[in-house]
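Lecture 7 notes. Example A: sequence first, then its structure tokens.
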Amino acid sequence: MLAKLSVPEREVLTLVSQAQLSYLEVAEALNIPIGTVRSRLHSARKRIRTALSDFPGRDGDPGPVDLAGRSGIGVAIVDEAGRLP
């Protein structure tokens, strides 16, 4: 998923989400304006959101559902009516 991002978008997203730096700290670390940090982060999140829209559950279909009713991949398989086979 991250491979779909540009290098600048990936840098900002990684520093904010994984290193948990503030926008100001990211701006200082990369020597860019804070507005550029916000713009790149917005673009990265939008690109990821668009890529994820192809997965089950994004169009009203909940996809696979486990016994607790949570959506996810690799959980109990149910038939069209939501019953366990």
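Example B, a different protein, same format:
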Amino acid sequence: MTVARGFSLLVVLVFLVLLGMLGFTLTHATIMQEKISGNLHDKQLSFLAAEAALREARIYLATASELPQSTAEVVRSVAGKTLPNARAASYRIACINACRPSGSGHVYYRILATGFGMRATTVSELEMVVSVEDE
């Protein structure tokens, strides 16, 4: 009878160790999922900020009375709401081919929009080439 009691104690201890390892593994997996989700959310925020900057740059090119006529760049920060710990999104407009009109009478501009997430290391950059009719 004493041998059976000792054996059942061993079985219960092994079962508790396995249960503890399972709990630790599940906790670790949950923490990793939270980190992945947070990183994805931060990347999406930076991408949306870059898209807003790109949209604002296109509006600037469509409505500006005087566009860059040399290789000089226009650099601007996007006004409006920013996240509490994030830098403001910005865009950079540069002329392509020294601002000379193409055969169709269009001047091409390169827009580089930069958006930032909550962390300083999260940055998204979008690039677009836009043609503007030469006046």
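Note on Example B: The chain has a mean pLDDT of 83. The chain has one domain: 2-133.
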